[in-house]
Structures are given as C-alpha cells and as structure tokens.
Design goal:
This protein is mainly alpha-helical and about 160 residues long. The protein has 4 helices and 5 strands. It is elongated, with a radius of gyration of 38 Å.
C-alpha cells in the first residue's frame, strides 16, 4: 500500500511538472512596434493583443546526430587529404606562370628604380606632410644597395 501511495505521488508530481514545462508562450507588439514574448496573456500594455505561439519540439535523435557528426568528420578528413595531396604535388602550371609573371614585373620595377637612382642628380623622399627630404651620400648608397639586392632577388642577376 505504501508503494502505491509513493507511485501515485510520483505520478502526480510528474504531471504537475509537465504542466509547468509545457506552458504556453504569447507574443504581442507594444505601441512602439517592438515585439515581445511572455508566458502569460495578462500583463501586456493596454491595447496589446497577445497571440498564442505554437511551439513544436521534437526529441533529438541520437543516431541522426551521430551520423551527421561522422559524415562531417569524414568530409573534413577527405578535404585535408586532398589539400595534402595538392601540396605534395607542388604548384600547378598556372601558379608557376603567375609567380613568374609577378617576378618579372617586380624585376622591371626595381630596374626602373635603379635607373632613377643612377641618373637623378639629387635623391629625396617625402615626409608625412609631403615635403621633400633630400638624401645624403650614405643614404643614397644604402638606397642603391637595397634596390640592387631586390634586382638580384627578382631578376636573378
């Protein structure tokens, strides 16, 4: 008999708790046009018309979640393998051509700069105000050495 009372009390507690968790949700708009949500139809400002929101919830299917995680993991692994294979194969023909074109463009730019460094009477740089600051002899030599190093790097000579 005592077990029956405990079982009945437990069932009533579960039913009462289920009612708390399964309460209704209401939605209303205030006079400023802001949307609000609440668990009681009363307490809204005057003129607000609460509307019961139908909320549908389904339990999570562990097998489906596990399958999705496994599929995502396999996809990532396959992508990493593809990237590793591409990296091991080396750069493509298009990448090599693009790199060669970039090196040639930089080579030409630095050769033009060297020509200017050699033929200019006085070299200068501009400060943050756009005013010219003329280089002394040591700064000119350092600038020529920097451009020569760039020519060696990009032109190969």
């Amino acid at each position: 008999m005592k077990k029956l009372v405990i079982a009945t009390a437990s069932m009533l507690a579960l039913i009462a708790a289920n009612g708390v968790f399964a309460s209704d949700i209401y939605k209303w708009t205030d006079e400023d046009g802001n949307v609000h949500y609440g668990d009681r139809p009363d307490g809204q400002p005057a003129g607000a018309q609460p509307v019961r929101v139908a909320i549908v919830s389904h339990p999570t299917d562990p097998a489906r979640v596990s399958a999705a995680v496994e599929a995502r993991s396999k996809s990532r692994a396959a992508k990493k393998e593809e990237e590793a294979a591409a990296a091991a194969a080396g750069p493509s023909k298009e990448e090599l051509q693009a790199e060669a074109a970039e090196r040639e463009q930089k080579c030409n730019t630095y050769k033009a700069q060297m020509q200017q460094l050699v033929t200019s009477r006085r070299l200068y740089r501009e400060d943050e105000n756009g005013e010219r600051i003329y280089l002394d002899e040591n700064e000119t030599i350092a600038a020529r050495e920097r451009v020569e190093n760039q020519i060696t790097e990009f032109c190969g000579s």
